[in-house]
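Troubleshooting log. The previous structure file for this entry was overwritten by mistake, so regenerating from the original sequence record. Sequence copied from the archived sheet and checked twice against the printout by T.R.
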Amino acid sequence: MAHPLDALLRPRAIAVIGASRKPDAIGRIVFEQLRSFGFTGPLYPVNPSAEAIGDVTAYRRVADCPGPVDLAVVVVPYRHVEAVVEDCERAGIKGLVIITSGFKEVGPEGAERERRLLTLVKRAGMRMIGPNCLGILNTDPAISMNASFAPITPPQGPIGVISQSGALGLTILDIARSLNLGIAMFVSTGNKADISGNDLLEYWEQDQAIRLILMYIESFGNPVRFRELAGRIGRQKPIIVVKSGRTAAGARAASSHTGALAGEDALFDALLHQCGVIRAETVEEWFDFALAFAHQPLPRGPRVAILTNAGGPGIMLADACEMLGLQVPPLSPDTQAFLKTLLPGEASTGNPVDMIASAREETFKQALERIACDESVDAVIVCFVPPIMADAMKVAARVGEVTERLFQSGRMAKPILGCFMGARGVVRRPERQPAGTPPVGQLTPVELAVEELQRYHIPAYAFPESAARSLAAMLRYRTWREKPAGRIVAFPSLRPAVEPVLASARHTHREWLSDGEIDRLLTACDIPRVRSVSAKTSGELPDAARAVGYPIVLKVASPAILHKARMGGVVVDIRNETELTEQLDRLELRLADQGFPPGSYGFVVQPMVAGGREVIMGISRAPRIGPVLMFGLGGIFVETLKDVVFRMAPITDREALEMIAGIRAYPILKGLHGQPSVAMEALQDILLRLSHLAMDMPEILELDINPFLAFPEAGSCVAVDARAKILLS
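Regenerated output below.
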């Protein structure tokens, strides 16, 4: 076999260990699924208590099978799994699909069983999917493998599907078949003890049959590797992810489901964005996107033409497009002139093109043919509402014929999407009845029309917003794929300058750096900070204030007080010594009320810096993800507005600018009402330096610079306050 995963996804012979004589047992269902789907190689049922499974000879042990076996599908009680794996090792089997549950997902005892199982698998040089999974499929006619207990088989197509949930996998296969959405391979990863989504991404990278990858995930095993793989593979094949566990309750449920930890969703969202992965908010949206990406070309730009027979839905489509960053521009004068000769006087020939309710299939055909070739648009959405006088099926057929003819002639490489209102877009048919055959039961006219569009691989949506969201996702992906990659800026190593700072804190067993140490840290990183003078006691404050020069800012300094402003430990705009005395008395009273008597803390005096726009920048280390950078609106607004963006380090020069532009308050930084823009290059430079610090000094666990005052002049930009936490051992 050319690749270790070939034994799993392209096996030449399969043994089902645990194939049962009971028709409703999972082992029997898996075996019958393999038979009925037409697996092209030898298929061996293994059951120590049965001479035959149905009309097929059974074998007591896998070693008794008459020929070599590549893949063993294991469906036995969990207490027997380890012995079965040892039998597979002796038989030379290299691929395992462990459908059996009762491992990490059930708690500590199950986790220990899974640890022992993985040890056996690795010792034998095997690769394993599961445990606790639904199974796998490969629809390639040369393989024809349904090694799962899913009762539904989707049509063949260009999509690779990864589902961490077996139960959701059943739904995925059902909906895919209903949508005539073709799948090349499907893998239910279960607990991901061995083979993970990352392994499958790498395996599918060179598979020409797979042009689109769909992933349902609850947790990331190795986010750093995912970023590397997805960022590379996504340049050639779109990756669409729906990730559950977004809330605290969902994360707890995800953990109990597969025994894996689900992390901070905002960080995972940043990770997906950074490597160009399209994130769907819901499973429904996941399929909406898949319909568009599977067979339609990517739009060249944001300009959308809307062709409809109903004014209201056309307006809704235009609104949805504009709100999602698409454009609905007027059509070219030549196209509008043609439409005026084609349509009645009361029709609208602008954009949306409202052909009114009397439009028939031939009108749709001619209008679409002209609009699709208009150079002033990049995509077309055909929106149809079924009046009595129009045949929905014929309209869909003409739309399909025009699309197919334009593609085959090479005259057009624009996506064409359908919005046929009146059906949910899912046509229910009995299993094994292919699309295009006469329906069993009564389908509505719009359902028949949707099926006709599916036959031409035109995505059909029930609502205008779904079509607009799908097209916007395609444009976002194309924009990401075609943008320059950017570069990682090289800086000299910080360790010689920073290590002594950390050593001084470690010497006194302090996780949090003092103000003086933070000054040295920022200086080593070449990050400007406002001048600070320390005072150990209140008696030293007048001299410190005179050294800085009024007006001043007075701050409390203590390792026990991390959030100075929150505790009332910051006083601004003190203009003379009298005010200093008055404000000091009030500050000491506030702190005493919170359990900090005078003498238990010191002070920092800084000059009052007027103006500037406050931002926050920082680094942190997320479990399993590694170093994370943050940028956002700073000062008192951080916790209230939470207007921040995250990126995984290291970042490129372009990603630094994208972080700055990614916050909602970006227009404030650019300048409102005639104000000049802040020095974006200064903010970019500091983000790149923080990225370098995060990678060069993993001992720094947290660093927040808040606020950092950004001015139009780069030389005036300065950090006002910061805090940093380090690893002591």
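The radius of gyration is 32 Å. Archived copy saved in two places this time.
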